[in-house]
Amino acid sequence: MEIELGRSIILVHDYDEAFEFYEQILNAQKYVDYTTDDGQRFLHVVFESKTSGIWFLKAAGREQFQLVGNQTQGQPTLVFYTDDIQSFYRRLVEHNVHIKREIVSGNGYHFLHFLDLYGNELVMVELKAQTI
């Protein structure tokens, strides 16, 4: 039996501004983007591997509105992998993205923490060889 992660959910204030950030910073691509007859929008984005992605959901109501940017209560929300953390770091700097933790290097890995446009903490990791 095969099991795969499909989508993680991120609460947003605005679909388009969320997509713009994730497209510019993380190379996200729209996978599904449609609006139902009753006005509910579904925006799913994927990344280069297209095996998993994010489903943006617009916060509805006071309780959800307060969770935007804080769904994991200060813990990292998502972890991404790259083959070039230095280039990714430069992209963050060029786009004035808040870097919460500078690059940390260890035996076989490098990682950094940064915040998305709402304050969700995201982690970018570069692994050497096949250590995933």
Automatic annotation (TrEMBL):
UniProt-listed PROSITE patterns: VOC (PS51819)
A family per Pfam: Glyoxalase
Species for this entry: Solitalea longa
This protein's name: Bleomycin resistance protein
Ranges where the VOC domain occurs: 4-127
TM region positions: none
Top-level taxon of origin: Bacteria
InterPro entries, per database record: Glyas_Bleomycin-R_OHBP_Dase, Glyas_Fos-R_dOase_dom, VOC_core
